[in-house]
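Input protein
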Amino acid sequence: MCALTEHPDICKQTIQGVRESFDDIEDDVVGRMNTFGYDEDSMFSVRVAIEEAFANALLHGHRGDESKTIEVHWCVTESYVEFMISDQGRGFDPSAIPDPTADENLTIPSGRGLAMMNAFMDEIERNDRGNTVRMKHVRKEGDSPA
């Protein structure tokens, strides 16, 4: 699906599908970004996108079944952050999710996480089944601490 699995500095972990399992990975990604000098806006954007991907895997993919595992791959370099998450759920078709910004959907709570992931990341790919997402944030010129 992507070159992420071939990068020499890839981190991989299989975690239980519980909220507490996400924190260490999020902290590692943001810590590595900080080491490379990414700015606060980029670290915030990546963290939110990762949190939303985890939440979607747990709530929608696994339907809250904490016995299922989530496979996570991530890589942080000077020029990009890449993150891939695979759940054991049945998957979904992103085109079937209503646009949360459309007037008729403003009161519907679904779709907001996907919208944030799309807004905060530069690249998003899903496998055909819809249970794996790969996201990439590309470092922008001037993306460094003040």
Summary: The chain has one domain: 3-138. The radius of gyration is 15 Å.
